[in-house]
Amino acid sequence: KNHTAVPLYFGQAKRIATPGQRLALFSAPDGHHCAAAGCDRQAAYMEIHHAVTDYARGGRTDIIELAPLCPTHHRMVGDQPGQFSTGRIESGPDEGRTWWQHNAEPGAPPTERLVNRLPDVAHNYFANLEQVRAEIHGRTPLERAGFTLNRINVFDVITPGLFTADTPHAHAFRAAM
Hints:
Layout lengths: L18 H8 L20 E4 L15 E4 L1 H4 L9 E5 L9 E5 L18 H17 L3 H4 L9 H5 L9 H9 L1
Antiparallel strand pairs: 1-2, 3-4
């Protein structure tokens, strides 16, 4: 969608993600943690996984087909029962994120596709806190007098530049603030 001078689409010409792709993945919705559901390993420890189609099966080393996985979860991906399959969510609120599904035994019903929600906890916390505060206390005296409160975005203070204006999380997070 937004293009840069750094190549992010290599098709089958390259197997290993480039430093530019790794940096771009870091700003993706699930890019700063392992994409496996429930994993809290941070991006500094990630391997880059062909999440849509395995490279050996024609998968492309394109930014929209890659996802970060910690080494432990990367070794768990495969086609066999007991292993995990991955893919990209194409629409809805989780568009662009990686789903993670446990491969069921033959004859068993398919398991649910999961998304790692741990990276969302801190972002959702502030929006939920504001909603609960408003439900309990109503508007503050200043708000009732017509003033708009400009709250500090604590994430910009703690991790400046992490949520840039171009990252999907930044738009959702700032809208919730």
